[in-house]
Amino acid sequence: MSHPPILEKLKILADAAKYDASCASSGTAKRNSTSGGIGSTEGMGICHAYAPDGRCISLLKILLTNHCIFDCHYCINRKSSNVRRARFTPQEVADLTLSFYRRNYIEGLFLSSGIIKSSDHTMEMIVEAARILREEHDFRGYIHLKTIPEADPEIIHRAGMYADRVSINVELSTDAGLTRLAPDKDARQIEGALGKTKDDIVEAKDAKKRFRHAPRFAPAGQSTQMIVGADTASDADIVGRASRLYDSFNLRRVYYSAFSPIPDASAVLPLKRPPLIREHRLYQSDWLMRFYDYRPQEIMQATEADGNLPLDIDPKLAWALKFRERFPVDVNRASREDLLRVPGLGVKAVQRILASRRHRTLRLDDVARLTVSITKVRPFICTLDWRPTMLTDRADLRALLAPKQEQLELFAA
Predict the structure, then answer these.
(1) Three-state secondary-structure class, residue 69
(2) Where is 257: in which H helix or E strand?
(3) pLDDT in tens, 149-168
(4) Alpha-carbon gap, residue 370 to 386, rounded angstroms
């Protein structure tokens, strides 16, 4: 049987990789090729580019193969799926990465794979591609490897020695959902692999403090991804699971990927995809937990009766509307924690308010200059010259503050 040409394989395996959202490249160690080698992760190194759906496309993002011995219902590459199959060799992956890098098309590699023969065999091939780049070509650009939790821990450890970031997909937020839609996968095994990688990262950081030339291990940490809308899990379930993952495994990021209907889909899957705005709301809630000191319970309090976050307003505004008794807050006296809960005030705006009020008593115009829009902020704050009186308690406040829905023209100039 003839093998497809390299460009045809690239077309198939790059398209097959588009469902994995966890390909951001932030947080890695700084390396450059001024003293030799190829590639860089600083200066003009990792150049982020984003597709219209928000996914990072600055990396060469491919699968080693879309053959797979698993039969996960939500995956287009499952063994029962009727799709064109292709497979790269580790050498081909390395050659493609170097070729694209030299042409300034990409700034690094994101490599995942379906599972062929066995988890160990596939993981060995992934590691070999990274080894060729690092050892044979002294490639110093960014490498993100998707690891397989069922593989031997020693092979996964070797992946971390070559990669800037490693990741293992949790896939679904509940054990019941994983059992139903991915019967070949085990939640405890996935968490065990996450825990082992966490320990390896901590050990490598500790060794680096004591020994200058200690080997690095996944300096950009590890991440994971959860599919949204493939099962009946609510946003509250997803937020709760994400919080536990952050706390237990020191993850850099949890990525959310809205389920996309696939050809020849299993009957257990929903017939249509969830709104993309639901994925966006989960990212906003994730941001609130990571940078605004919100507890996961507070995010859950912002959900509707069905456990999902409202789609018409952001989670921060939804929480504030449910707890109006905590507002308005005095920007001249309120703590950082209370200011961070004011809709419309970001982290930088709060820092500026705290710095400015040491020198003067703030007025509404002062706050307006420190934030993007004062409209959302006004009902929830007091200043020297402003009190919202009954505005905070208006029954139609949600309608007043919700973004206006606007139909854009497809061919507008």
Answers:
(1) coil
(2) strand 253-258
(3) 999 999 999 999 999 999 99
(4) 16
**178 contacts: CB under 8 Å, gap ≥ 6:** 171, 172, 185, 186, 187
Question: What is the per-residue DSSP string for 340-354?
Answer: HTSTT--HHHHHHHH
180-229 residue pLDDT tens = 999 999 999 999 999 999 999 999 999 989 998 899 999 989 999 999 99
3-state secondary structure 87-98: ECCHHHHHHHHH
Burial class of 379 by CB neighbour count within 10 A (0 to 12, 13 to 18, 19+)? buried
Residue 379 near residue 388, CB atoms below 8 Å: yes
Of 280, 409, 292, 386, whose CA–CA distance to 342 is shortest? Answer: 292
- Looking up tokens 């007043």 gives 400
Bridge partner list, 50 = 56
What is the SS3 assignment for 132?
helix
Q: Who's near 197: CB < 8 A, 6+ residues apart?
A: 147, 156, 160, 166, 168, 218, 222, 249
Angstrom CA distances, 324 to 32, 350, 381, stand at 51, 20, 11
DSSP summary character for residue 19 = G
Give 187-246 as a 3 state SS string.
Answer: HHHHHHHHHHHHHHHHHHHHHHHHCCCCCCCCCCCEEEEEEECCCCCCHHHHHHHHHHHH
Beta bridge partners of 223: 167, 253
The torsion angles phi and psi of 89, rounded to 5 degrees, stand at: -90, 160
Helices 153-162 and 119-131, interaxial angle, to 10°?
A: 20
Give per-residue pLDDT as tens, 330-354: 999 999 999 999 999 999 999 999 9
CATH class of 6-270: alpha beta
CB 73 within 8 A of CB 116: no
The CA-atom distances, in angstroms, between 91 and each of 6, 23, 63, 218, 242 are 12, 22, 14, 22, 36
Per-domain residue ranges of the chain: 6-270, 275-413
pTM: 0.87
CB burial of residue 105 (10 Å; 0-12, 13-18, 19+): exposed
In whole angstroms, give the CA distance from residue 222 to residue 174.
Answer: 20
Which H or E run contains 254?
strand 253-258
Dihedral sign (CA 297, 301, 302, 305): positive
